[in-house]
Amino acid sequence: MDVRALSFTGSGRTGRLIQAAAAKSNLKQIFLELGGKSPAVVFDDADIEQAVKETAYSIQTNSGQVCMANSRVYVQDTISDKYIALFKQHFENEVKTGDPLEKSTNHGPQADEIQHKTVLQYLESGKQSGGELLIGGAAPSDREGYYIQPTIFKNTPEDAKIMKEEIFGPVVNINVFKDEDEVLAKANNTE
Questions:
Q1: Residue 164's pLDDT is what?
Q2: Does 67 participate in catalysis according to the annotation?
Q3: Cα gap 153→84, rounded to integer Å
Q4: Contact 189/180 with Cβ under 8 angstroms?
Q5: Distance CA 14, CA 8 (A)
Q6: Taking a C-beta distance cutoff of 8 angstroms, is the pair 151, 136 a contact?
Q7: Which residues, including other chains, have CB under 8 Å from residue 191's CB and lie 6 or more apart?
Q8: What pLDDT is recorded for position 148?
């Protein structure tokens, strides 16, 4: 009862529980940042190599377990083929999965077994959604632990679960757009 305010960043489910508990206590003030589906928008006047580097780093750092990870990338149609090819190449050539204590590793495991299973469920949902799986989509077969392959889905339907819910794993959806009005409507179409 001595706590007058709480700040929480995480899932909508946990945020609802915290808000209900706060209401039942002393009506403490709550600040919530919940379940984002952070979009990145890449227009055809962008430095494509730099855009690939930054967006790939965003979803791959901490094995995708960052609430601001660019899990949805919208790329203008006139550069989409080049961007997607470079992004896929980056994941294939630059990501080194392994023990995070080793200097050469830049992609470690999921936080725990529960998160690992959750990400695998999202991957299965993504495969069923109608988007095209370009790379990844599973746990690596050559490694024990809670690892997930960095995964790219292309042109995933906007209403798909993996486009609407935060996965908290190394899973990116790259969709193509034609103009600014279209992409802004898509980027802002989240809870």
A1: 92
A2: yes
A3: 10
A4: no
A5: 9
A6: yes
A7: 12, 35, 164
A8: 97
How many helices and strands in the chain, by DSSP H and E? 6, 7
pTM: 0.87
> How far apart are the C-alpha atoms of 128 and 137, rounded to whole Å?
12
E strand spans, the chain: 5-10, 29-34, 39-42, 72-76, 132-135, 151-154, 171-177
Residue 131 is given by DSSP the state P
Say whether 166 is catalytic: no
Ramachandran region of residue 153, left (φ > 0), alpha (ψ -120 to 50) or beta? beta
Catalytic residue among 54, 67, 165, 182: 67
pLDDT at 42: 98
The structural domains of the chain, ordered by start, are: 1-34 (no CATH), 36-187 (3.40.309.10)
Catalytic residue chosen out of the listed positions 33, 102, 158, 191:
33
Q: How high is the mean pLDDT in each 10-residue block of the chain (191 residues)?
A: 88 89 92 84 98 95 87 98 98 92 93 96 97 96 93 97 93 98 94 75
